[in-house]
Amino acid sequence: MIGLAGAALDYSRANASRTAMQATLDTTALMVAKEAQQQLVTGDQASSRATTLFNAAFNRPEVQNLQVTASIDSGSNGTIVTASATALVSTTFMHVLGRSSMNVAARATVVNNNDGLGCVLSLNPSASGAATAQGSTTVKLNGCSLYDNSSNDTALTVGGSATVQADFVGVVGGVASTSGITATNGIRTRISPVKDPYADVPAPTYSGCDEHNYTAKNTVTINPGVYCGGIGVNANAVLTLNPGMYIIDGGGLTINGGATVNGSGVTLFFTSSSGRDWASVTINGNANVNLTPMTYGPTRGIVVFADRNTPQGTTFKFNGGSNQYFAGAVYVPSGAIQMSGGADTSTTCTQVIGDTVTFTGNSNLAIDCSRYNTRPFSSKTMRLSS
């Protein structure tokens, strides 16, 4: 009886030691994963770094012969850090029975990857209100997330009676108020900036003009080409774009209320060969727009692409309302996007990426984008499993 009671005490001590080892190893694995993300530690250094971190935090004299190892594996799905610890715990009562120690072990795995669920990204690194919802706007991000790269304390602003619903909200800086924000997987501030997913996409090259100051006044179909001075669509006109690349050199795309614009497999590139009168977008209320992107070539997945040399703050107004649908990426890296509209369904695909993004009216976005070859984006997430 005395031996059994003593054995129970020794097992209890060993279990407590293992619990402490597991907690310390979990912290160690997370730290190694974070340092690996920042490229401060490599695979060859993983075990030595894990040992240093573990020993600095763990202090249990009864644990002997402690060995800590770690590995870093990188692949298309992210980085995986695996850490393990083994040791011996000296016994007291069981020593009399011929067993002087007990083996204990712990293991932890951290997966560091992107979920790819971003559908809104403001790229400005410092602006207040880089991402904004104002007035009585309702923004529904169906199963997707909003990211804001501004380090400003009020980087994300949801004012008035505006509301934002998202899977997740991540901000490099701070949020002016969270009262109007509902995020299924939480709101995080002080995150690392999210990489521009289209930063390496080259601007299309072109020369000359195929059309000057083109205006659609009735029902008409046009072909890809260079439209100098822009494209205008009058009220009640119906414009169809054949598949391909449309270069809008100066002026812009103006779609008036009541007009209809359709196009499958198109990319609209907004630029200025003169360095003046930079092309932009103005879509007025009650316009009917349904455009899907090219799914091949360098600009695949992008339906709207603004020249990176466009002056910062140039306004791109997408105010077509519920009948406005841009599939794929609306990519305006140096412009100020104003968005009001989008199809209210979870089976649509829209990414909105701008220097700043302001929602001025009810908007609905989702990222069911597999068929359009868009590039996923999100912040790095770490998931711990023991």
Q: Would you write up a description of this structure?
A:
The protein has 386 residues and is mainly beta. It folds into two domains: 2-114; 118-378, no CATH class. Helices cover 12% and strands 45% of the residues. A hairpin with a 2-residue loop joins strand 1 (63-75) and strand 2 (78-90). The radius of gyration is 28 Å and the shape is elongated.
Gross geometry:
elongated
Number of strands: 29
The total of helices stands at 2
Please give the largest β-sheet.
8 strands, parallel, barrel
Overall pLDDT: 90
Number of domains: 2
- First CA to last CA: what distance? 36 Å
Structural class: mainly beta
Strand percentage, roughly? 35-45%
Task: Kindly summarize this structure in a few lines.
With 386 residues, the protein is mainly beta.
List keywords for this structure.
386 residues; mainly beta; five-stranded parallel sheet; 2 helices; 12% helix; 45% strand; elongated
Secondary structure layout:
Layout: H1 2-37, H2 46-57, E1 63-75, E2 78-90, E3 101-114, E4 118-122, E5 131-133, E6 138-142, E7 145-148, E8 156-158, E9 163-166, E10 169-171, E11 181-183, E12 187-189, E13 211-216, E14 219-222, E15 225-233, E16 238-241, E17 244-249, E18 252-255, E19 260-263, E20 266-271, E21 280-283, E22 288-291, E23 302-306, E24 315-321, E25 324-326, E26 328-341, E27 350-359, E28 363-366, E29 380-385
Parallel strand pairs: 4-7, 4-27, 5-8, 5-27, 6-9, 6-28, 7-10, 9-11, 10-12, 13-15, 14-16, 15-17, 15-18, 16-19, 17-20, 18-21, 19-22, 20-23, 21-24, 22-25, 23-26, 24-26, 26-27
Antiparallel strand pairs: 1-2, 2-3, 3-29
Helix pairs in contact: 1-2
